Structures are given as C-alpha cells and as structure tokens.
Amino acid sequence: MQIIPALYIKDGKVAIYKPGDFENIEFLPDDPYVLVEKMDKLQIGNIGLIDIDATLGTKTNAGLIGSLSNITITTLHVGGGIKNLSYLKSLQYAGVDYFIIGAAVFGASDFLKAVSEAEDVKSDKISIAINVLDGKVTHHAWMGNLTISPEEIISSCREMGFKRFIISDVRSSDPEDGPDMAFYASIIQKFPDCRIGAAGHINTFDDIEALEGIGVDAVVIGNEIYKEKGLLEKIAIFNEKKRK
C-alpha cells in the first residue's frame, strides 16, 4: 500500500477545487517546483500530477510536467487529457513514469487498443481512472453519467491487458463519510489479478489501513494534503513503513 498525493495543475499553478467546479478554482501560493521538491526530500515515493487544462481540452501543462520530472527522483503519475498515443508518448519521453487515462476510455477503444499494442508503452504503466457516483460511472470530470458499470469497464480494459485501476468515489453529500468498503471489496473479489487504487472520502489513516486490509493497492489523496499541517510528513512516514 502506498499513498499518492495528487497536485492539480492549472495555468502552471497548483489548484484547489471542488470536483467538477471549474468556475471557482482557488490557487495555492506555493510554486509547484517548491511543492515537488519538498515531496522529493521527504521521499514520498509517488506523486500524482493532474492537468486540469488538458482535461478541459483548452491547453496542456506538458512543459511544466516535463520540467518537474527532471527535478525529481520521485515516481510521477500523470493524468488529464491523455486521449491519443502521441501525447502519451510525449509525456513518456519527458520522464513521466505512469499514466492515468480517464474519460478517454469511454467510447475510445481504438485509443486503448493502440496503447496496448504499442511496443514502447508498457500496459503496466497505465492506470485506468474510473469515477463512480452513486454506483454509476461518471465522466468528463464529473460532468455526466453513463449507464455502463465500473465492472464492465474493468472487464473490457482487462481484456486489453490493463490491470491497474484508480476508482474514485465522487459523492458530494456527506463528505465526512469514509470510503465505501463493501464496494471496493466487491471489485477486488471480482478482479483479484488487478491492482485497485482508491480515491475520494478517504479522511483518516484508519480509512487507509482499512482499505489496505481489503486489498486496495494504493490511495490517492488530493486537496487534503494542503489542509492539514504536517500531513505530507505523515504520508512520508507511512509510505516508508509500507515499503519495508
């Protein structure tokens, strides 16, 4: 089990925002280079970089992401707007370690097939991100729902050789509720050969330990890392302990 802190990047800055609300985004005063350098020194181990601009399709922060990859030895997981093989490869050449593919998986089997067949892209470096709202898959940054189930997406992607998934619980009600353990346990039981990551409604280290207990491989923590003083240090200690 590892905790992956996620930095949301917009306009070259680190953003704090409510999922799906792109009109009221706040920005941290901290420079992204400073934050990444801090995580590197703490030996966090893994960092998620989510490109909001690329998600919206307006532009990308690929230059910044490539630059950040050059200043850190930490493993970088990058998501947002990865919808074609050439962009994925450009991120790979820039030094990105893992790639998070989200909304592009819906109705884009040709893209995923191309990724799975690319000789210079390893399928185990790809994480398929699935956002779940009230048991239904939602897409395009929580702006629409689909009738397809998470299990159907996992089955389809698994047939193409993808076995890493990040499943996000994006319930907006009762934000203090913990993760849906029964849901994650069910997914892990159905797909025991897959590596399942969890995100959303993970509020305490007890939540994280409980998720580890049912077989969750990693958890992604977002805005929480900015709200609680000393949380990054706690994450570093947790990750180091779990790596031993």
Distinctive features:
single chain; 244 residues; alpha/beta; 10 helices; 12 strands
Provide a descriptive summary of the structure in words.
- The protein has 244 residues and is α/β, with parallel strands linked by helices.
- The chain has a single domain, classed as Aldolase class I (TIM Barrel, Alpha-Beta Barrel), CATH 3.20.20.
- It has helices at residues 32-42, 52-56, 62-71, 85-94, 109-117, 150-159, 181-190, 205-213, 224-227, 231-243; strands at residues 2-10, 13-16, 26-27, 46-51, 75-79, 98-101, 126-133, 136-139, 144-145, 164-169, 195-199, 218-221.
- It has an eight-stranded parallel beta barrel with strand order 1-4-5-6-7-10-11-12, surrounded by seven helices.
- The radius of gyration is 17 Å and the shape is globular.
- It starts with a strand and ends with a helix.
- The mean pLDDT is 89.
Short description:
The protein is of the alpha/beta class.
Say what the CATH topology is.
TIM Barrel
The CATH class, by name, is Alpha Beta
Q: Could you list the spans in which at least 5 consecutive residues all have pLDDT below 50?
A: none
Q: Can you tell me the CATH architecture? A: Alpha-Beta Barrel
Q: What's the overall geometry?
A: globular
Number of strands: 12
The helix/strand class is: alpha/beta
Summarize the amount of helix as a percent range: 25-40%
Radius of gyration: 17 Å
> What is the subunit arrangement here?
single chain
Q: Describe the sheet with the most strands.
A: 8 strands, parallel, barrel
Counting H and I runs of at least 4 residues, what is the number of helices? Answer: 10
Strand content: 15-25%
